[in-house]
Structures are given as structure tokens and as C-alpha cells.
Design brief:
alpha/beta, globular, 21 strands, eight-stranded parallel beta barrel, five-stranded antiparallel beta sheet, 20 helices, single chain, 4 domains, TIM Barrel, 21% strand, binds ligand IDC
């Protein structure tokens, strides 16, 4: 009887077992169907460059979505199965790689069969003992997960190494900047999507007449950091950072194009840069980077020859901008710059009737408000450069931008940094964020300084990083990390109220019935030093008269001067909260200027011309006295 009962019980359990096996088989069949459907989706997710890039939303660290059974176990090679290491780096979702691991290392690691998902990786449904017991269950998941199918090509496969790691490997410890691409979800590059740009009113519009902003990256001086002009880096700034434009900064002075640099090599680098950018569908600015040559007229003949050649070569290109003088300075007036522009522009226009031309403005491309009162006439597609460094330039300069735009001037921020105006010093993200909000509001385009690994705050990449792409957070300086956040749309959002306050703070320059103060200047000779203070701009701001000064020291002697000091006595009390390339101390009417680190010594026969400040006073100012001393 007990035997009989035993037999009966066995039968029940066999039925049960059969039922379980059937259910398991159904589960497996469903799983395989799901997997196939998913791999199909992946394959049709877009062709061309975009196929290798995960859209931001999917890679954002905030989206801590756990992989579903299919996603996690899906080893199917998608179109991104053959990406170059760069491309893989660009699609590796944050959080899956520890901060110490570079994307390249991670990729290599993932490509080894050991890291590939195995049958054990298959999440719970298929991993029950029942399925394991059936012969079919053993084969199906294994084939699906075989290492030969290049599982690491899909970003989702990374967390599946063990079943337990899958749920826990949520991207919480974001080690790399979130990859953002400037390529659309449909796979179109910025230029493929927006085509030839033109200037309409104060803004850039695309081929469909829709407002469009360039948000890009400027190289450092091409004579110093040529290595970053390459496909690898440009692709990285497009696909890992999300930039749609690059600026090629060719210095004219400082061993640059007009000062002993290798002309042929520099010109080739510019042309290579344009070709690489064009192949990648990026907009590109050819920047005639005047700086220590102050007045663009200094090398006007060279500029004309250069732009004649460039505009002949690139007239058929839809993506090329010509920036004809980076930063006029040293007291050069707008009328002088304008004259230069009126000689260079027709040369470009003869060859390239449509390309956008950017003209620098006086005071290191800050005086857009002055240019706005007397713009260049007779040509389309002309824009005017405004440059800012957020550590130095705040409401005062935003006010100039606002004034210029309100007067109808198309402003282009072809260079900016988030540190101080020397390209070094502390970064000011709060001010940088205000700038971005304001530029976005007015549809202004902006290009960050600089794509290099120099030991300075404005270099995006750390000095000890020798990579050309696949940068982790640890490889980037603060400005670089901020840039990736900014381009990825991850800056703190400003409310309408914040924006309104920002605009109010920027006010408007020179408004009201009160006459704008006249410019003032004074030059003194002290020993072998010639020291001068010259206003480049003046305006009214609430109760204050504002004077923007450029300060220069020239050493005519045969010995270097160090630890210099300039003491300026005004006719009335002054204050300042905006100065660059110097230290400032004010007591009543007396202002003392001291060096920044880099201009502590003025070489024999040399000069320093970068120093500047904005002085505010309740009454009209006069300079009573300038005293100079040095060691
Ligand atoms: C600076 C570089 C620095 C280099 C110097 C050479 O950051 O490494 O030694 O030029 O003169 C500008 C200029 C830009 C400057 C930058 C920072 O356009 O060339 O680069 N800056 O000083 N205008 C304002 C700041």
C-alpha cells in the first residue's frame, strides 16, 4: 500500500515536473523571441555615426534604470559592434567603469571573453534550477551569451558579468563625464542637419531659417598644441562632449604665422583642421589670432594674403567661418579695427560670397557696444566678437553684450573661459552659468578656450593627461568638466525670475540722460619705464561713472624690472571689483596696482599690456598722478 501510494505520489510529481518543464520551455522561447526583437531594434536604431553613440538621455547618470532581463543579457552586436576605441569610449555609460579605469582600458577589459555574459549572467527567470535541469535550457542561453558575439559593443551588456552585479551596477559613481553627442538621433552631423548658416538680425539661422547656436571649442595656439588637430580629438569633442564647432586659433605673433613660425606647416594645420571638421560635420572657425601684435593692421598684408587663399580654397564649404582678428588691444580704436575689416572682408567676399565673417572688437574683443554704434556696412553675414573670462568679466561686460544686441549687432562669443582673463586663476562657475543663461537667451554662439593640456586653468585637459580622446573626469580640469556638463545640458536650470534679475543686473550701458563721461588717459616716464593708463570705454551705471582702463608698462632699459608697483592718484574716491592680470588695492583716491604671477618681471626692452580694470566713481574722474617703482 505504501508502495502504491509511493507510485501515485511519483506520478503527481512527474506531472508537476512536466508542467514545470513546459513552463520553463515557454519562458525560454519567450526570452529568445524578446531577445531577437530587441536585437532587431538595435540594428535599425540608425545608420552612420549616430549609430555608435548613445543619446544623452540614455546615458545620463540620473537615469538609474536597472537593465531589464533582455537588455542586460543582450549580447547582440548592434551597429556599434565595430566601433573604434574612441567610439566605444564615447558610448560607455557612466557608472559602469570605475574612476581609475580609462575608457580604453575598460573596453579592452570588456572585450576579453571572461567579462562576457555567460549563462549564469542570465537574470533569474532563466536561472531557476528547473530550467537548468532541462537540456534545452542549457543550450539556449549559452548560445545567446557566447563571447564571440562581441558583447561589449552594446553599452547595456557591461553590467551583466554576474547575476548579482547586474542589479547593483547602477550608474551611481559616475566616473566619466556623461557622453553627449552633437549628432542627432537620426544620425545627422551638425552640418548635415543645419547646412549653411547665415546671419539674420542679431542671430545665426540654419539652412531652414531656424535659429541656431554654435557651442564649441577653440584650440590653443596651433604652433604650441598641434596634436589636438586630429580626427580622434575632433570626434571626441563632437561625440563625447557634444560640441558642434571647433575654432582653429592660429597666432600671428609669439612665434606664430607672422613672427617666425613655420608658415607652411601652420597653414597646412589650418587646412587639415578644416578638412577634419568638415568630414565630421562640424562647423569650423579659421581664427587669425592677433594678440600681442595689438593692432590688426600690423600684419594686414599677410592677413589679406592668408584669407584670400583660405576663402578661395573653402568657398564651396558650408561650414567655414572666418575670424579676421582675434583681439585688438593696446588702445586700438574701433575705427582702426573697422578700417582693417573693410580691407579684409572684400577679399574674402570676392571668393566666398556667403561664409560668415567674425570681426574682433577693441579691448580684447569686449567693445561690442562701441562697434554697435558704428557697424560695418555693405556686407551680409558679418558678426562681431565678444570675449569674456567669467572669473574677471561679469555684469559689466554682459551689459555691453546686451547693449550691442539691443542696438542690433550680431554678437559671437568666439572665445571665453570660466577662469580669469589671464587664462589662469580660479574658475567661477556661478558667473559662467550666468553667461551661458544670458547667451542662450539672446541666441549667442560660444566657443570655449582652450583645447590643450597646458598647466593653466583655461586648458580643458590636465597636463599629465596625454590622451587625445576618451577623457575621464580625472583627465579634465575644472573648466573641462564644467564644459562637458554644460554641453550635456546639465547646468542648474535658471528660473524666469533668475534670468530677469540677470538682465536687470546687466542693465544697459550708457543709457539715461546723463552724459557718458569722457575718456581719460595719462602716461608718465619713470626711470626707464613708460607707464600709461588709457580708458578704452566709459559709461554710466546707476550712481556711478565707469571707466575701463588698459594699463601698460614698457621697459626701455637694459635691465629687467621686477615686483613693480603703480600708484595712481585720482581727483576723487574710486572703487573697483573688476580687474585682470594685476592685484589692486584702493584707499580713497589712491589706487595701487601690483603684478600677477606671470607679469611680475618686465624684461629689458619688453612690455606688459594685458593689465586692465574697471574703476567706478561718483564723480567725473581725472588722473592726478602716476608713480612707478620696481626692483
Ligand atoms: C593665452 C594662453 C596661454 C598663452 C598666451 C600667449 O592661454 O597659454 O601663453 O595666450 O599669449 C585671450 C587670448 C588668448 C589667451 C587667453 C588667456 O585670446 O590667446 O591665451 N586670453 O590669456 N584673451 C583673453 C584671455
Amino acid at each position: 500500500m505504501s508502495k502504491k501510494k509511493q507510485y501515485k505520489m511519483d506520478k503527481t510529481s512527474r506531472i508537476l515536473l512536466a508542467a514545470l518543464i513546459t513552463m520553463a520551455l515557454i519562458a525560454i522561447v519567450l526570452g529568445v523571441l524578446l531577445w531577437k526583437a530587441n536585437s532587431k531594434n538595435n540594428k535599425s536604431a540608425g545608420k552612420g555615426p549616430a549609430a555608435t553613440v548613445t543619446p544623452t538621455t540614455e546615458a545620463e547618470p540620473t537615469e538609474t534604470k536597472k537593465p531589464t532581463a533582455t537588455e542586460a543579457a543582450d549580447p547582440t552586436p548592434t551597429d556599434s559592434a565595430e566601433p573604434t576605441p574612441t567610439e566605444i569610449a564615447s558610448i560607455t555609460p557612466t557608472g559602469e567603469v570605475t574612476p581609475e579605469v580609462t575608457p580604453t582600458e575598460a573596453v579592452e577589459e570588456n572585450l576579453t571573453p571572461t567579462a562576457a555574459p555567460t549563462a549564469e549572467a542570465t537574470p533569474t527567470a532563466e536561472a531557476t534550477p528547473t530550467t537548468a535541469a532541462t537540456p534545452t535550457a542549457a543550450t539556449t542561453p549559452t548560445t545567446a551569451a557566447t563571447p564571440t558575439t562581441a558583447p561589449t559593443a552594446t553599452p547595456t551588456s557591461a553590467p551583466t558579468a554576474t547575476p548579482t552585479s547586474a542589479p547593483t551596477a547602477t550608474p551611481t559613481n559616475a566616473p566619466t563625464p556623461t557622453p553627449t553627442t552633437a549628432v542627432s538621433k537620426g544620425g545627422k552631423t551638425p552640418v548635415a542637419e543645419h547646412g549653411r548658416l547665415s546671419v539674420k538680425g542679431t542671430k545665426i539661422v540654419d539652412k531652414n531659417g531656424k535659429e541656431y547656436q554654435l557651442k564649441g571649442v577653440s584650440t590653443h595656439g596651433l604652433q604650441w598644441f598641434p596634436q589636438f588637430v586630429c580626427k580622434e580629438t575632433f570626434q571626441c569633442i563632437r561625440d563625447e562632449w557634444g560640441a558642434n564647432a571647433v575654432r582653429l586659433a592660429m597666432y600671428t605673433d609669439e612665434n606664430g604665422y607672422c613672427a617666425g613660425g613655420d608658415k607652411a606647416a601652420l597653414k597646412k594645420l589650418v587646412k587639415d583642421g578644416v578638412h577634419i571638421a568638415s568630414d565630421l560635420g562640424l562647423y569650423v572657425i579659421i581664427d587669425w589670432h592677433i594678440l600681442h601684435d595689438y593692432d590688426p593692421n600690423t600684419n594686414k598684408a599677410e592677413a589679406i594674403k592668408f584669407f584670400d587663399e583660405m576663402s578661395k580654397e573653402f568657398s564651396g564649404y558650408e561650414n567655414v567661418f572666418y575670424e579676421i582678428c582675434n583681439e585688438p588691444n593696446g588702445g586700438v580704436s574701433w575705427s582702426t579695427v573697422k578700417k582693417y575689416a573693410e580691407e579684409v572682408i572684400p577679399v574674402i567676399r570676392k571668393n566666398d560670397p556667403k561664409g560668415i565673417i567674425i570681426v574682433g572688437t577693441p579691448t580684447w574683443s569686449q567693445d561690442v557696444d562701441i562697434a554697435a554704434k558704428d557697424p560695418i556696412k555693405g556686407y551680409d553675414n558679418i558678426m562681431y566678437a565678444l570675449h569674456f573670462y567669467a572669473g574677471t568679466h561679469k555684469d559689466n561686460l554682459r551689459s555691453k553684450m546686451k547693449t550691442a544686441i539691443e542696438l542690433g549687432l550680431p554678437v559671437f562669443v568666439s572665445e571665453y573661459g570660466i577662469c580669469d582673463a589671464s587664462g589662469n586663476g580660479a574658475c567661477n562657475e556661478t558667473e559662467a552659468n550666468k553667461w551661458v543663461a544670458m547667451m542662450d537667451k539672446y541666441g549667442v554662439s560660444y566657443m570655449i578656450w582652450n583645447l590643450a593640456n597646458k598647466n593653466e586653468s583655461s586648458s580643458l585637459i590636465k597636463q599629465n593627461c596625454k590622451k587625445l580622446s576618451g577623457f575621464t573626469e580625472a583627465d579634465l580640469n575644472q573648466e573641462g568638466r564644467w564644459l562637458v556638463k554644460m554641453l550635456g545640458g546639465q547646468l542648474p536650470k535658471m528660473t524666469e525670475e533668475d534670468l530677469k534679475k540677470l538682465e536687470d543686473d546687466a542693465g544697459g550701458s550708457g543709457g539715461g540722460d546723463v552724459a557718458v563721461p569722457d575718456g581719460i588717459e595719462k602716461t608718465v616716464k619713470s626711470g626707464s619705464a613708460i607707464v600709461s593708463l588709457t580708458t578704452s570705454n566709459t559709461w554710466n551705471e546707476t550712481a556711478y561713472k565707469c571707466y575701463q582702463f588698459g594699463v601698460t608698462i614698457e621697459n626701455e632699459g637694459s635691465k629687467p624690472m621686477s615686483d613693480w608697483k603703480i600708484v595712481v592718484t585720482f581727483n576723487s574716491e574710486v572703487k573697483t571689483d573688476n580687474f585682470w592680470c594685476c592685484g589692486v588695492e584702493i584707499k580713497g583716491k589712491v589706487m595701487t596696482l601690483t603684478p600677477a604671477d606671470f607679469n611680475r618681471t618686465v624684461a629689458a626692452g619688453g612690455n606688459t599690456m594685458d593689465i586692465g580694470l574697471i574703476v567706478q566713481s561718483k564723480s567725473l574722474l581725472k588722473i592726478e598722478k602716476i608713480e612707478f617703482s620696481s626692483k
